[in-house]
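note to self: dont lose this again. the chain is below, predicted strucutre after it. 196 aa total, dont forget to put it in the shared folder this time
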Amino acid sequence: MIDLSAHPVQVAYDLADRYGLELKLSFSEYFYRPQAALDERTTYFVPIVEITPDWVAEKIRSLKPGWELALNSKIIDPRNRISHIPMIDFFSADHPDTDSIAFNEIVGREIANELTLFNSGRSFHAYSTTLLGKGDWIAFMGRLLLLNMPNLPQVVDTRWVGHRLVGGYSALRWSANSSHHQRMPYLVRTRHHRRS
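---
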């Protein structure tokens, strides 16, 4: 049995709590090739009400060898509008400083205040529940690159940003089904601020 008690499936529940149960989330199944310019990937939308721990466990169990499951940033709302979940793939296995003034100014306070952080084994992944339109998502991805300061260790994975801008959506892994990934991401911290 797959333990999903600290799994990023929690992000789907947080989005449902904030935006309702009529959303559709986008997922990918992809074959990971280190340092490849493009990957083999299939994408599909799933109604948010169907995304349960059992659904995730079955999806992971049914992956072909070497393939991974990822949540994509694209969301479809009840009026068929597309928004994006802000996602960050940090570069290092060191815990990122998401509390710094610089981080909050570059990423945006509203996004930073809603971050949920997961340890993916090789790095950290972050999700925010503050949805973005396409133009705002592109600007957000560009701002992520500004977190990498000259002559300092890299903060954000620049290749991930490039791949995702080319793809037209962000994606973060939910499984560990290849030799490259030793564990599924697990919850480290949530910063949800209650709205009145």
